[in-house]
Q: What sequence folds into this?
């Protein structure tokens, strides 16, 4: 039996966890009848990897899947220690497990008010907390007004950056930074307790921002951050190796004179350690060029910073050569390299990434690349695939065996009953048409071709398989999810 089909039925049989039984919908609800019907329907698919001349990959949370419970605890505990050294109370540090329902991707911190927000696709505040305390609607209205429109929304939707001007807000959208939202909330809790009530204005975020910087990118050139030190001690504790199926797929992608490149924001030593852990000591064989410390949100696509042969001490180069590692750089020089290697004047590029801010938005808007978004929330919230999505009937040869294992404990950190779905907010859907109506749902459909829970899902399919794309012109469109729509977006529930 095909490995994808095996995994599908394994999902169906796996008993739901006590906390998530409603969210394991895709594992228990599918029937043979609905699967058979899905095979008969010929969908109009218009995304295909075989159509591209070059395929790029981010590393962290894309090719490299982290063991999120261990990673989040490492990040949270280290950030708390850094902030305590800066003079904050030891009480800000708590057991992260007690706040796992508070953790949620895509929240905004209103830095001066000490409030944390979940936004709709048009800027309405859907849910809000002050510190870790959830606010009711009346209290939210008393702070933000009757219409609940957030004043910084136009800036946030227009530039899709991690923070606003003068740091009036900060969004948390990757597994590397969302533990910091708990740090911020706990700081507000402790400051309010010490003050005997809420402050009129908060100014702690600059310290949190600096701590995040020290953790990932210390100020001294050539120095590695604390993340590197923490993961290096025991990589297998934090990283999940790629399946052999993914490795075979990466080699297959290089056929037909296709260029496969690596482009990550991580520094070179960290990226090499991660890649060796997830792909093996021969990881360089899977790629035609390796770019580290690419400042994707800091000007890679819009400025002309030169590539360096090595970080810091490496000399600047004017042109790129295959099978070499470079640091920094810019879009124009990379495009020139891709044109030379593919022998095409305007090669068609698709990029795999996990971050809507640093991968999807700049790659699509400034590079005109298509993007495959790796989005683990799809798996955590549950999806409903049809049989055609799990078994390709036209397959002529066996495809790659992949790893679709799901850690139930990770789901508890990804999901949040308090904040609700990453994709959908029922109260804002009077027509019940099940479009994505959160801020991030709008970004997903606007800047990505398709979305998958992990690369393992797409690696199990032939590279000439055709998928439906998101309709970027339709706000909140749900067509591009593979292998199926997340449970909250299904109209028959």
A:
């Amino acid at each position: 039996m095909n490995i994808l089909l095996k995994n599908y039925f394994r999902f169906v049989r796996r008993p739901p966890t006590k906390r998530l039984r409603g969210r394991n919908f895709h594992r228990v609800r599918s029937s043979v009848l609905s699967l058979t019907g899905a095979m008969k329907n010929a969908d109009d698919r218009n995304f295909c990897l075989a159509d591209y001349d070059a395929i790029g990959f981010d590393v962290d949370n894309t090719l490299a899947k982290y063991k999120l419970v261990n990673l989040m605890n490492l990040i949270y505990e280290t950030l708390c220690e850094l902030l305590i050294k800066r003079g904050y109370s030891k009480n800000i540090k708590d057991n992260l497990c007690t706040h796992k329902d508070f953790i949620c991707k895509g929240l905004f911190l209103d830095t001066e008010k000490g409030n944390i927000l979940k936004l709709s696709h048009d800027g309405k505040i859907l849910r809000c907390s002050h510190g870790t305390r959830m606010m009711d609607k009346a209290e939210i209205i008393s702070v933000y007004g009757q219409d609940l429109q957030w004043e910084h929304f136009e800036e946030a939707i227009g530039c899709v950056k991690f923070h606003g001007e003068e740091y009036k807000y900060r969004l948390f959208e990757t597994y590397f930074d969302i533990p910091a939202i708990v740090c911020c909330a706990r700081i507000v809790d402790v400051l309010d307790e010490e003050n005997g009530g809420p402050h009129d204005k908060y100014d702690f975020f600059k310290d949190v921002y600096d701590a995040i910087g020290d953790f990932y990118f210390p100020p001294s050139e050539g120095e590695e951050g604390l993340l590197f030190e923490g993961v290096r001690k025991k990589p297998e504790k934090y990283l999940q190796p790629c399946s052999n199926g993914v490795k075979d797929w990466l080699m297959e992608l290089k056929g037909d004179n296709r260029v496969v490149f690596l482009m990550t924001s991580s520094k070179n030593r960290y990226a090499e350690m991660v890649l060796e852990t997830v792909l093996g000591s021969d990881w360089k064989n899977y790629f035609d060029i390796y770019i580290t410390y690419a400042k994707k949100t800091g000007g890679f696509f819009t400025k002309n910073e030169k590539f360096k042969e090595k970080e810091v001490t490496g000399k600047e180069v004017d042109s790129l050569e295959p099978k070499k590692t470079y640091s920094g750089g810019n879009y124009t020089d990379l495009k020139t390299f891709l044109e030379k290697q593919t022998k095409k004047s305007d090669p068609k590029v698709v990029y795999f990434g996990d971050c809507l801010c640093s991968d999807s938005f700049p790659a699509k808007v400034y590079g005109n690349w298509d993007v495959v978004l790796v989005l683990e929330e799809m798996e955590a919230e549950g999806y409903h695939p049809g049989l055609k999505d799990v078994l390709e009937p036209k397959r002529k040869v066996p495809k790659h065996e992949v790893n679709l294992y799901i850690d139930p404990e990770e789901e508890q950190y990804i999901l949040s009953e308090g904040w609700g779905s990453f994709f959908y907010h029922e109260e804002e859907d009077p027509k019940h048409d099940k479009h994505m109506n959160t801020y991030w749902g709008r970004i997903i459909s606007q800047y990505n071709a398709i979305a998958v829970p992990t690369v393992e899902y797409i690696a199990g399919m032939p590279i000439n398989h055709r998928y439906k794309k998101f309709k970027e012109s339709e706000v909140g469109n749900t067509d591009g999810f593979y292998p199926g729509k997340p449970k909250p977006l299904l109209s028959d529930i």
Summary: The first strand starts at residue 54 and ends at 57. The two ends are 30 Å apart (CA to CA). Residues 374 and 452 are 5 Å apart (CA to CA).
